[in-house]
């Protein structure tokens, strides 16, 4: 019998696309499965629930939510033989979209039952994992403002972006080391991605692959507000690489050193993290997560 656990984030996305016990029981009727359903009740709760599921012998753990929920669940099973299922009920669902996992709950469940596995790379930033992307600068500021809003919708992402735009000029100097080359910049944005999608079909790293053993990065130094607008428009058409100051490249690792300021404000898979260490080391664990796709 297969021991399959579902970790459901009831507030992900617009909250009207929720995975329920009724739906799951309809699809997992036969004796082949032992089904366990858990609901997260607060931030980071899915980590605790997943660890319990591992102890309870789950062989498939399904994250039902957006990239934040996927991060909490998947972080616990990196490097194990446990299979990760995803039912994308979040707002952005960047990773699921990259993996072509359907947003329609019933279709995602059908996929899980087929159990086709793809091994994907996993990004690391200090002691944290990321599966989609991480960043310092403008994107982290957007996430900070987004988290302060009470609804997780595209409209609130746009509002948060406008607020971050008004708050520009807060950047602190950072030393960046890539392949033994050091540069000092006041970054508008340092964005590092494992996946080719941010969510909502928007991408800063359209050429990124989850299976190529490389991180795709884009570094943009401090730019004028006009150039930020130009960057935003180009990004919608996936043409932002043509911005002269944008440095787009692939690498295995990036090292950042904070020169000023007391903390690195970063976003990790769309969640805000304050990193107190002076150093940030971003790297990759190749093909270390089994995802049902
Ligand atoms: N019951 C809950 N109440 C409040 N927050 C919760 C609850 N359960 C989980 N969370 C938190 O909700 C946050 C958002 O989850 P998630 O990222 O899955 O959804 P989303 O933001 O709508 O999707 P996406 O990241 O794809 O845009 C996560 O930080 C998670 O820890």
TrEMBL record:
Residues 1-128 form the DAGKc domain. One of its GO terms (cellular component) is plasma membrane. Keywords: ATP-binding, Kinase, Nucleotide-binding, Transferase. Gene3D superfamilies: 2.60.200.40, Probable inorganic polyphosphate/atp-NAD kinase, domain 1. One of its GO terms (molecular function) is ATP binding. This is DAGKc domain-containing protein.
């Amino acid at each position: 019998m297969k021991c399959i656990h579902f970790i459901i984030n009831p507030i992900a996305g617009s909250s009207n696309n929720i995975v329920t016990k009724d739906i799951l029981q309809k699809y997992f009727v036969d004796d082949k499965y032992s089904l366990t359903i858990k609901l997260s009740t607060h931030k980071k709760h899915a980590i605790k629930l997943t660890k319990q599921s591992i102890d309870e012998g789950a062989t498939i753990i399904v994250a039902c939510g957006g990239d934040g929920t996927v991060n909490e669940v998947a972080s616990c099973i990196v490097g194990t033989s446990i299979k990760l299922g995803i039912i994308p009920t979040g707002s952005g669902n960047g990773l699921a979209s990259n993996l072509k996992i359907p947003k329609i709950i019933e279709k995602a469940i059908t996929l899980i039952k087929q159990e086709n596995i793809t091994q994907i790379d996993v990004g690391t930033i200090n002691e944290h994992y990321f599966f989609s992307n991480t960043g310092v600068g403008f994107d982290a500021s957007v996430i900070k403002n987004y988290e302060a809003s009470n609804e997780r919708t595209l409209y609130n992402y746009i509002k948060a972006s406008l607020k971050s735009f008004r708050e520009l000029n807060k950047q602190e100097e950072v030393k960046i080391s890539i392949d033994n080359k050091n540069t000092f910049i006041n970054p508008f944005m340092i964005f590092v991605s494992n996946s080719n999608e941010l969510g909502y079909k928007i991408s800063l790293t359209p050429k990124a692959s989850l299976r190529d053993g490389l991180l795709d990065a884009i570094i943009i130094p401090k730019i004028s507000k006009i150039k930020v607008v130009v960057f935003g428009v180009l990004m919608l058409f996936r043409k932002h690489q043509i911005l002269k100051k944008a440095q787009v490249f692939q690498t295995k690792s990036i090292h950042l050193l904070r020169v000023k300021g007391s903390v690195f404000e970063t976003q990790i898979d769309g969640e805000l993290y304050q990193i107190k260490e002076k150093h940030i080391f971003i790297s990759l664990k190749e093909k270390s997560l089994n995802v049902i796709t």
